[in-house]
What does this fold into?
Amino acid sequence: MRIIPVLAVLTITLAACTSSGGPAAGTGAGPVALSAAEAGKRLTANRWELVYWEGTPVPHGDNGEPVILTFAGGRVSGHAGCNRMMAGYELGPEAGSIAIKGPATTRMACEEGRMQFEAAFTKAFGAANAVRFEGSHMFLDSPGVPSLKFHLRELQGG
It folds into this structure.
């Protein structure tokens, strides 16, 4: 008779330990769209490294330099996989909305695969119209394109 209560406790304990919890495990919430002011603080407090883009190998290590962006004063700059990238950006007025303005890259030649990645990334980045945050990740979304997932990195020199 004691075996049923013990099994129930073990089942509950195992379920709690093995639950995947999805993207926001342990938080009870998924990605969050912040007000323009809060999103601006979060964007400018860190550098952001592209870590996932569904269906597209993300450059890093032997695959090329990582895509790392810095947001400040309505401008975003960084490395787009081969070249330096720059654009303007504007947050709001609705929570979670972002407009990327005039993304452009320098014109250094790189290996063909990196150049193709950079062109696709610049196009997807320029189309982003929503920004959301989940823990140490930022997601840029646009209609019909898989989300760009970035991980925060400390600001250099800060």
User: Anything to note?
Assistant: The longest strand covers residues 145-153. Residues 1-28 have pLDDT under 50 and may be disordered.
